[in-house]
Amino acid sequence: MNKTPTQTPHSLSLFADNETNLVHKPELQDADLQYYSQFYTAGHATKLYHSLMNELSFNESQIQMFGKTVSIPRLQAWHGQAGLTYTYSGTTLTAEHWTPTLKKILEDVTQYCSHDFNAVLCNLYRDGQDSVGWHADNEPELGEQPIIASLSFGEARMFQMRHKQDKSNTWRQILEHGSLLMMKGKTQKYWLHQLPKTTVFKQPRINLTFRKIYA
Questions:
Q1: pTM here?
Q2: I want to staple 210 with a disulfide (CB 3.0 to 4.6 A). Which of 12, 68, 138, 149 is the partner?
Q3: Within its chain, how far is the Cα of 198 from the centroid?
Q4: In this structure, what are the phi and psi dihedrals at residue 188, rounded to the nearest 5 degrees?
Q5: What is the distance between the alpha carbons of residues 15 and 5, in angstroms, rounded to a whole number?
Q6: What's the average model confidence in pLDDT over 59-71?
C-alpha cells in the first residue's frame, strides 16, 4: 500500500524550474483552470506523500444518497482552522488541526495561488476501485466563485470534467504525482468533475483540495 511512487533521479529542488513549459491553461467555456504538472519535483513529492501517509488519520465517511446512508468509496480527513466545519451530501466534517506537512504545503499553495486558504479536504484513493462521482464544489460556505487548489501525490489518476448544460463539452486530464490543478472563477457553477473507477491496477493516491471556508 505504501509503495514509493516513481522518482526522477535529478529532482533535487522543491519546485520544478521550467514552470512555463509545465503549466497548461485549457480554454473552456465558463471555466478558469490551470494545471501545473510538476508543482513539486518528483523527489520532493514522494517525501511529502510518505509524510502525509504517516501524519493523516483517514476515516471512512458516509453520505446521504437517495434517502439512504452509504459509505463513500475512498477515505477522508478534514483539516484546517480550528472549529471549521464543512457540510456536503448530508455529512458535516469538523476540522482537525494542521499537521506539520499540511501546514508546509498550505504555505506553498497560498504563495503560488495568492489566496487565503483555511482548510483542506484530504482523500485517500486506496486502489482503482476508489473514486468520486460527478459533483461540483459549490456548497454555500465556499462562496460564489470558490478557488479550489487540488494537489496529487502517489498514483496518477484520470480526472474528468463536463459542462452542466452541454454534456458534450468535456475535458480530461491525468493528474500526476506532485501536480497542482487550480479551479476558480465560474468553474464550479457551470461544470461537474469526477475521478472515475478503473479496472487497471492502481497504487494509492492522496489528493488534497485546499479551499476557503466562509463562516
A1: 0.89
A2: 149
A3: 18
A4: -70, -25
A5: 17
A6: 78
| Phi, psi for residue 42 in degrees, rounded to 5 | -60, -40
Q: Are 193 and 35 in contact (CB under 8 A)?
A: no
* Average pLDDT value over all residues in the chain: 90
Closest by CA position to 179, among listed 201, 202, 159, 200 = 159
- The strand pair at 157-163 and 180-184 is best described as unpaired
Grid cell locating 41: 519535483
How do strand 157-163 and strand 170-175 relate by DSSP bridges? antiparallel
195 strand-pairing partners:
132
Note the Cα 213 to chain centre separation in Å: 16
Q: What angle do CA 78, 82, 83 make, to 5 degrees?
A: 80
In the numeric block, which cell numbers belong to residue 86?
464543512
Q: Which of 195, 203, 197 minimizes the C-alpha distance to 177?
A: 203
List CB contacts of 63: < 8 A, sequence separation 6 or more. Answer: 69, 70, 72, 88, 89, 90, 91
Scored b (16 or more CB within 10 A) or e, 94-122 reads: ebbebbebbeebbebbeebbebebbbbbb
